[in-house]
Design brief:
With 94 residues, this protein is an alpha/beta fold. It has one domain: Rhodanese-like domain (Oxidized Rhodanese, domain 1, 3-Layer(aba) Sandwich). Helix content is 23%, strand content 23%. The protein contains 3 helices and 5 strands. The protein has a 5-stranded parallel sheet, covered by helices on one side. Strand 4, helix 3 and strand 5 form a beta-alpha-beta unit. The radius of gyration is 12 Å and the shape is globular. The N and C termini lie far apart (30 Å).
């Protein structure tokens, strides 16, 4: 199986205007409201499975969380389901 590709959190800026990419913030709604990457969708990790049907398979999903661990876990799960994914390591708090 293919390895999950990771990027440094600071590299998210490169993807903000990419129409073929959706940036997903996996943190809680409260954390999202306190601050997030411009244009990011807030899908807390615990709701990811039920929200998966909204996610277009043809786009790259760029995931981030607080530190990077949840983004890695979610990225692997989505890859297994056939999505194109990258996970940001370092997270929003860094």
């Amino acid at each position: 199986m293919k390895e999950l590709e990771t990027i440094a959190f600071r590299e998210i800026e490169k993807y903000k205007n990419d129409r073929n990419c959706i940036i997903i913030d996996l943190r809680s709604g409260e954390q999202f409201r306190e601050g997030h990457v411009d244009g990011a969708w807030n899908i807390p990790y615990e709701y990811l499975e039920e929200a998966r049907s909204m996610l277009p398979r043809q786009k790259l999903l760029l995931l981030y969380c607080e530190r990077g661990g949840t983004a890695m876990l979610a990225g692997k799960e989505l890859m297994e389901k056939g999505y194109r994914v990258k996970a940001a390591v370092g997270g929003f708090e860094h």
